[in-house]
Design a protein that fits this description.
Keywords: Hydrolase, Nucleotidyltransferase, Transferase. This protein has helices at 16-28, 51-60, 64-67, 81-93, 135-143, 150-154, 163-172, 176-194, 244-256, 262-268, 331-339; strands at 4-9, 31-39, 70-76, 102-106, 123-126, 203-213, 216-222, 231-232, 235-237, 269-275, 285-294, 309-316. It is of the alpha/beta class. Strands 6, 7, 8, 9, 10, 11 and 12 form a 7-stranded mixed sheet that branches. A 5-stranded parallel sheet has the order 3-2-1-4-5, sandwiched between helices. The longest helix has 19 residues, at 176-194.
Amino acid sequence: MYDTALLIGRFEPVHSGHLALLHEALRMAPQVIVVVGSAWQARSPKNPFTWAEREAMLRDALPPADRSRVRVLPVRDYYNETVWVQAVRRSVARHTQPGDRIALVGHFKDATSSYLRAFPSWALIDLPRQGSMDATTIRDAYFGATADTVEQALAPLAAQIPASTMAQLQAFVHTPHYAALQEEWRMLRGYRQAWSAAPYPPVFVTVDAVLRCQDQVLLIRRAHAPGKGQLAVPGGFIEQRETVWQSCLRELAEETHCHLPEATMRAALQSVAVFDHPDRSQRGRTITHAHYFDLGDAPFPVVQADDDAALVQWTRIDQLAGMEEEFFEDHFHMLDHFLGLTKLD
């Protein structure tokens, strides 16, 4: 027996394999902590549900006596495993005592499960695969259906979808989120199919511009899927005959009409960081070079939305932390890297 058993996952959505691991954790310890990942991410086809909605799926699938033994801890995606591991450890430490016997319950599904080996001080309980279900299969069937055909589309999978999950899925189709995510799912599916005949999986190179002025940053709202309506920093794909520097200035000008002299931008450049986490973009393997500029107390440049931007806005840095769920892909974490928006307590 252990004092606490841990289960870590995204649960997008909860299925029978997740519940099998959860029941094993409940058998092993009086307290179970479920770390729900990808918390505070904007909704997307890969992350359609808020962490609170996923918590409800988990709790509603358990009898009342077991619910009282489960504590759910949301943890954001940092797109940096070292930082993420520290965040998980600190969250768990708040609800355990020094010297407690802690077991981490999991299953090595594929390369995405490597995080299970990142906690050597906890006993790793590596269980065989629990059933044949995975969340991607459910999401593909779900978004490939319509509001009228969801029940029929999910019928072949129903035996491995808990009633609490099925109820949420059926209710969710009647929200505006479903249609928007379905549009994105179709766009991303077509995007990946267009590259399926390539001899090697493609790696895309993009650029982003974090432009600061008077303690505000320049943001856009994306005009098109993926991430339609979500906040982002200006940026886009590099062109064949450009350097990343040239591409960054071009994308900034195309999306915001910010036409500052190159010498001014050179003087304002503080740093360049590469963001290359394999899961940072659902479009495929995408590596971006983010350029951080600080114009200090200079007057705000004139800006206007264009190209892929539906709206362009200057936003106070002290407001960004409360807007995390509005950001496209890892753009909040890009801002966090340069501006220190979050701190590990």
